[in-house]
Amino acid sequence: MDRITSNFVIPRWAAAFGILIGVANIAGWVFDWTVFISILPTLPKMVLATAALVLLSAAGLACQARARPLRRTALACGALAALWGLVMALSHVFMMPIGFLLAGAMGSQTAITLSSTFTSSMFLALGVALVLMALRRCVIGAQALAAGAFLVSLLNAGGYFFRDTFLYEVLPGQGVGLLTTVAAMLLALGILFLRPRLGIMAAINSNMPAIRIARRLLLSAIGVPLVLGVGVTLGMNAGWYDAGTALPLLVWGTMVGFTVIIWRLCLQLHEVEIARQHAEAELRRTMQELHDADGRKDVFLATLAHELRNPLAPIKATAQLLARTGSTGPEQLGRMSAIIERQVDHMVTLVDDLMDVSRVRRGQIALERVPVDLQAVIAAAHEQVRPLVERKRHACSVTAEPVPVRVLGDSKRLVQVVANLLNNAAKYTPEGGALSLALRADGRQAVIEVRDNGAGIDAALLPTVFEMFTQAALTPDRSEGGLGMGLSLVKRLTEMQGGSVRANSAGAGRGSVFTVTLPLADR
Known about the structure:
This protein is α+β, with helices and mostly antiparallel strands and 523 residues long.
């Protein structure tokens, strides 16, 4: 990830400006342009030895800030910059010239003067950092060296702004030039952003909320003292107060600034923590729902296996009986055929339900949208369920409006919806129960209501009664069979035709009411 081209924008610009500063300084010495040597005649100069350090460091940075880094070239440039900086630093320590290069003193800086001790040390650190980056080893150490060089350069820049020669001069007349300071700052930033997702930079280069807040705090830690220092210095230079007053003002302003900023960041952290807690609660709720759904799925699979196995036992017994008896009379053969046909029809119904649910969930069912008379729909549904109602000796009443009630929908699927609801009511009501099927118009809606006085639905199951794998939990004894997919299919088919369905029950053993609502067709 750290090799993405967009991450090299800062290093490339830093290397480009570094090369520009180094070349401009050389041109300044050749053509005696003071602005490219020391900006002003009274300021420390950037000598040719420093220009060489800047160019070597910038070249090493540019070689690494590529989609395909030139590692060997970058390593060579970094090593040369580090070696050159080390040689000049040792020359200052032991007061020894290097060939024709001299250690300048007392304002005697010339083109052949050695770089100052601070300058040599800074570029020694930058050269070592470039070498470590090129080797891809100890990225944290390389970034720490670059950060140190940047902070020293920032201190030098502060000395120029506040006109404090102590901050940028080690020897009188020989210090770190302003151009050198700018070049070192840019190169240090470029090295820091070479691997923005590794090392110490990874801590401030993330989009996590806490990291964004920490990044703002870091910027405030740099910006607040800088802005206050500039303001206090300007006021002191204007004669509004003396140095004795400036220091307490700076301390007070820093305290107030950081108090306000940290307070605001604490509020943001509080909001982040609340959002995190809500996300964790939502995750726990989702995990619980998945766990419950997985449990219902297991029940469903066990039910499916049971329901598919049940019809096979009568079929197998009938086949064995046929094999043993050899020849059978027409009456016995008819009874056996009826057994096989009934069980096969049951298996076909199970498979059809499975296929319908699968098609609906995948959006593969095409519905007609034609005017449908719901009176014919409830009559057809009642006729389908009549054998089960009669077998269980239920009393089933059917009531409808005296005038046709028409909706736009698919007649076959609407019959399936009503038949499933009426079939459920018949199955889960004890023998001799009471069922009712009613149709009425309510404003611009058609309402179909299926009511029974049977097993009812527990209040805890009502919110999930139309979900897949839920129905099996309603009748744990499995006395009436079924896969429990009917209500899920009812809900989906009804919604596909612009309607809705809801379930109500006073509790277990107190019956239930299912209500289907569909928009009426325009006259």
